[in-house]
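Example record used in the benchmark description.
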Amino acid sequence: MWYAQNPARRTHQLAGDAGVLLWTALWAAAAVIAYRLACLLALPRALKERRGPLPLVGGRVDTALRRVAGAVDAMDPVAVRTAVAVGALALFVVPVGLVLGVWLPRRIRWIRQAGAARDLAASDDGRELLALRSLLRPLDEVAGTAANIAGATPGSLAEGWRNADPETLDALAEAELERLGLCLAPRTTEPAVHIGRPAEPVAESVTESVAGPVG
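Model output (structure tokens):
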């Protein structure tokens, strides 16, 4: 499960993912532009052969770039390209890494918690565990959960969980799922199987009912 079932929570997650992708794309483009521009400065001959100013830059910027290109004229081209590549890579890795370091662990943690909670909600024992998890929240959150349930108090919720009250367990499990942006799935009921004496053959039953017992 990658996204929440709650529309507001899902929209928030989609916006966050889109923002991270946009941030990554912008810094990737900035790193590529910086690398190409630095490589251009590392080739002063190309600037000297070009008589006109560089496109998309003003006269002062063009003059400054030519001065920088003249300064690196005496440097080793291989060392210059290596330094340029490292600088461009750092320009991409540092800002993107900072954002991913904050966003990615939280995103992975939610995915793992949501998947585990969804599996637990599919069984009665799992719902009881989710209900216990809801009761183990801080006291203010437990009080908020009780406030959203008609006629409930934190003490009555604890008592209902202790007595395995189905309505209390479902309410607590639903509150825990809502914190993750999930919905409580309906229970799947299976037909009851009765184990007992095998049924008598239909023909014998009909015969006995009409003619009466023999003997």
